[in-house]
Amino acid sequence: MAESTILMVDDEAEITQLMSIYFKNEGFRLLQALDGLEALEILQSHPVDLIVLDVMMPRMDGLQACMKIRETHSIPIIMLSAKGQDIDKISGLSIGADDYVTKPFNPLELIARIKSQLRRVNHFNSAPANANEIHIEHVVINIASHTVTVDQQEIKLTPREFALLQMLAVNRGMVLSMDRIYEEVWNEPFMESKNSVMVHIRKLREKIERNPREPQIIKTVWGVGYKIESELKARGE
Question: Is the pTM above the cut of 0.70?
Fold first, then answer.
């Protein structure tokens, strides 16, 4: 976890200065940007392990920046915003953010969420080189390389989307409740909000299903949760 590079994108200098102290104490390297455009420039020339991205900024706001970043990067993104309504959280999550923290926030909470995201990425990257592929219909999940192909074309998934798909695939045939999905994928207690899980399921379906409106891979079990059918073909086990 030490030496991870965090890119913090926020035009409020006080917040960045405060967090720089916490990042230094955790052994993180901090890169700073004042808006989305500057963040994109930094990503072109510096390796970054995680991005903390404010929503309200001049020139290019966080939502626009998140969409641009997701075109080429699967780096974990944590959104920051003074807006706390569910619709604002859904907007951030639906365009590819992995987590959402509402201002004002406790710096220790943000640090905990950053560590959670980095642990997840490090877990995937440390998978054995001979880890099995999981084949489900036209989808191939490679656990070792943290890649997914759909109809032989590699697609971009966020770390959280990949964790969600892997969880469903490994437990195919089992119905996974929303609270179990949230607690394992988000690595924190279920907070009585189904929006985060539902948004990520929708985005995942848009990326892997041939017809997201009639999903054949990720099935909804109404009132219970989600599952991938066990009779779908699986290889390399």
Answer: no
